[in-house]
Amino acid sequence: MQTASNGSAPTASISEAALEVRPLIEGDLRDSTSEDLFEVVSPSTGEYLLSIPTGSQQDVDRAVASARTAFDDGRWCDAPPSFKKKTLHRFADLIAAEAPSLDALDAEEMGKPISLGFCNAAAAASLVHFYAEAIDKLSGDLFTSDLTNFVTQRRVPHGVVAAIVPWNFPSFNTVLKVAPALAAGNCVVLKPSELSSRSGLRIAQLALEAGLPQGVFNVVPGLGETVGQALGLHHDVDMLAFTGSSMVGKLMLQYAGQSNMKVVTAECGGKSPHIVFADGVDLDAAADGIAQLLLLNQGQVCSIGTRLLVQHDIEATLIEKVSSRLHNIVPGDALDPKTTFGPLVTAKQCAKVMQYIDTAPEQGAELVMGGGRLLTETGGYFVAPTVFRNVSPTAGIAQEEIFGPVLSVTSFKDTEEAIQLANSTQYGLASYVWTASLATSMKMAKGIRSSVFINACAMAGEGAGHALSSEPAGQSGLGTEGGLAGMESYMRRQLVGINHG
């Protein structure tokens, strides 16, 4: 393990236009009506960064009214497809041009290393390009009619979409909600995480620079219990697009029921398993994949494999291989380009992860490596990659989403037990199966309820790219995200029947 220097300058300058956090409504930055402030702290140093408004009902009302007016007068939804495509392509180009600065904002606020290409601002720009091209790719349905009837279904936008996004990939998560919502013809009110507000706000400003009409994309920074709740309960919001914890996802469903029965999509927590069979699979490739995914953004990813289910015969060998790879990190300031392993997002999150680690032995888990803090002298929130073996399937570290670099290892005997263990949590977001057997891979794909990735060797290339979509199961959420199917989530089907007899 190496340590990155703490005094090196970031490779990207932070745009001055992105440093002021205020509501962006009808194309202009406005003062929040809230007098209360929330302090944002650098996770790399523990030092104060900036203060943002906590937000208010009045802020939300103004933003929703702006979006409603923009939607009702058709300035965006009724614009020609060519105008929409050109605008979104320009939007993507502006994000790409400012990607280093956006990555620096995210690194400074929540600790995602600027060296990490996964779900960075450049990837966000690419996603906007995809949805720009998708604008005229979705069509309605025509049903067989008799001699006097013509029946069709149109796909139309919901209207005003409230996008509530998490802190772990701020730039990318903003675009993941906003791009398909805009491509579908909606107007948007974005609530970025209070821990990482600046990149989302800057992205909205870039959309305006690209020619998006004023009022189509508004931003209200603030806390979940103020801005998030107000959006969830608002009677003039037509859809909630949420990513976050299962607990808050359930609140969004409650808010929708308590208000106007708005549509809700929610990608929530996960406790995804890697399932490795002793059937000739390349264990080095498996170990590479398991370690890389656990280290990704310090384990702060809802779909990472934090459970390792391994066939008993290869358990010891695989644990050794994975553990050796987890030592190959360069921890340090997330703004340092040499850093490969940054801090956890807050002191609270760090304490939560450490509590899981400290109490795991009480439930019978055996510590293999890690188990402590790193770089405490920096004041940052660094936790060492940690592995436990002999973990009971009912233990807290095997059942609950930790959102940190903690791997729990449990052995299994056969395919049936592997399926049972894979499905043994409340979540159903993703599973990773490592097998050299086509029959085993098909049996696992049919038996596991989550999305399933079969990795007999390490994946390479783009695969389906931005065109893939997924739908969670259990308490991992509801609704489809990604690809054209995900864009359809931001639209409803309107039936049109014509009797011409």
What is the strand and helix layout of this fold?
Layout: E1 24-25, E2 28-29, E3 37-41, E4 48-53, H1 57-72, H2 81-97, H3 99-110, H4 121-134, E5 141-143, E6 149-157, E7 160-164, H5 170-183, E8 187-191, H6 198-209, E9 217-219, H7 224-233, E10 239-243, H8 246-258, E11 263-267, E12 272-276, H9 283-295, E13 305-311, H10 315-326, H11 347-359, E14 366-369, E15 373-374, E16 382-383, E17 386-389, H12 396-399, E18 406-412, H13 415-422, E19 427-428, E20 430-434, H14 438-447, E21 451-454, E22 473-474, E23 477-478, H15 483-488, E24 491-499
Parallel strand pairs: 7-8, 7-10, 8-9, 10-11, 12-13, 12-20, 13-18, 17-18, 20-21
Antiparallel strand pairs: 1-2, 3-4, 5-6, 6-24, 11-23, 14-17, 15-16, 19-22
Helix pairs in contact: 1-7, 2-4, 2-6, 3-6, 4-5, 9-10
What does this 3D model show about the protein?
The structure is a single chain. Mean pLDDT is 95; it is low at 7-12. This protein has a seven-stranded mixed sheet with strand order 14-17-18-13-12-20-21, with helices on both faces. A six-stranded mixed sheet has the order 9-8-7-10-11-23, with helices on both faces. 35% of the residues lie in helices and 21% in strands. It has helices at residues 57-72, 81-97, 99-110, 121-134, 170-183, 198-209, 224-233, 246-258, 283-295, 315-326, 347-359, 396-399, 415-422, 438-447, 483-488; strands spanning 24-25, 28-29, 37-41, 48-53, 141-143, 149-157, 160-164, 187-191, 217-219, 239-243, 263-267, 272-276, 305-311, 366-369, 373-374, 382-383, 386-389, 406-412, 427-428, 430-434, 451-454, 473-474, 477-478, 491-499. The protein folds into two domains: 16-268 and 478-497, Aldehyde Dehydrogenase, Chain A, domain 1; 272-463, Aldehyde Dehydrogenase, Chain A, domain 2. With 501 residues, the chain is an alpha/beta fold. The protein is globular. It starts with 23 loop residues before the first strand and ends with a strand. Strand 17 (386-389), helix 12 (396-399) and strand 18 (406-412) form a beta-alpha-beta unit.
